[in-house]
């Protein structure tokens, strides 16, 4: 197999780190993007950091990129979650799309979440999809002020899933032969979720919210394997799909009527 060049954000920990290791293990060149310990160090929560991430990645890859995985994410009860999970991911994917279009078998993927199926703040989601970051942050501030900051993570993940579904069939993506998909994990043992396992009350709430009858909690490598296939040349026709790698949580919560 010919080595490919793949950009992975969130490459310093968790799912992104696991994916980078898998890709490098099969001989691919990975351009890691993260706040630290990466080929490109950039803050995806701010426009300047997003521009830097795109520019430096393009410089390293020479303007041609085989795949991009937007894996960076946070789960704070603040507007940082919206900044990184939605606007950071979309800016990276859109910014690197021209480099993907120059490759022979380009692919793109996002790390979503089972939480995207949970209650969201409609104003936050709407502003995200309108591409209006100031409005999204104002809406997020109101959510935090109302004591509902916990809804910002599902709102950010629902918004990016809806953006993906809308963008994937456009001339800019499907028209250029670029499949665009997401993996939506259930509970994954990563540094981001570690605190939840240390608090019995939070652990119970998490288990109630995300029941995983098939094999329980996942290690990051499980999610990375699904992402590896989504960005592989073998994936020629799957696009716009949110692939739930969640131990059966989505099927349990939404039932057989939703598919």
From TrEMBL:
<comment type="similarity">
    <text>Belongs to the short-chain dehydrogenases/reductases (SDR) family.</text>
</comment>
<dbReference type="Pfam" id="PF13561">
    <property type="entry name" value="adh_short_C2"/>
</dbReference>
<protein>
    <submittedName>
        <fullName>SDR family oxidoreductase</fullName>
    </submittedName>
</protein>
<dbReference type="InterPro" id="IPR002347">
    <property type="entry name" value="SDR_fam"/>
</dbReference>
<keyword id="KW-0560">Oxidoreductase</keyword>
<dbReference type="InterPro" id="IPR036291">
    <property type="entry name" value="NAD(P)-bd_dom_sf"/>
</dbReference>
<dbReference type="GO" id="GO:0016491">
    <property type="term" value="F:oxidoreductase activity"/>
</dbReference>
């Amino acid at each position: 197999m010919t080595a490919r060049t793949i950009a992975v954000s969130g490459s310093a920990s968790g799912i992104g780190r696991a994916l980078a290791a898998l890709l490098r293990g099969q001989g691919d060149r990975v351009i890691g993007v993260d706040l630290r310990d990466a080929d490109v160090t950039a803050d995806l929560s701010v426009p300047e950091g997003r521009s830097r991430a795109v520019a430096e990645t393009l410089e390293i890859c020479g303007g041609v990129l085989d795949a991009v995985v937007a894996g960076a994410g946070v789960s704070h009860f603040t507007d940082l979650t919206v900044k990184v999970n939605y606007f950071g991911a979309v800016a990276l994917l859109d910014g690197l799309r021209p480099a993907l279009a120059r490759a022979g078998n380009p692919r793109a993927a996002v790390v979503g979440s089972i939480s995207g199926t949970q209650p969201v703040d409609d104003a936050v989601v709407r502003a995200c999809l309108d591409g209006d970051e100031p409005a999204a942050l104002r809406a997020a501030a109101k959510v935090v002020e109302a004591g509902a900051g916990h809804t910002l993570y599902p709102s950010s993940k629902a918004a990016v899933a809806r953006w993906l579904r809308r963008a994937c069939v456009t001339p800019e993506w499907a028209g250029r032969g670029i499949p665009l998909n997401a993996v939506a994990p259930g509970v994954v043992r990563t540094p981001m979720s570690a605190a939840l396992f240390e608090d019995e009350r939070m652990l119970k709430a998490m288990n109630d919210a995300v029941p995983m009858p098939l094999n329980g909690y996942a290690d990051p490598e499980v999610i990375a394997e699904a992402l590896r296939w989504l960005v592989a040349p073998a994936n020629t026709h799957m696009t716009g799909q949110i692939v739930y790698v969640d131990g059966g949580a989505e099927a349990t919560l939404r039932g057989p009527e939703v598919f």
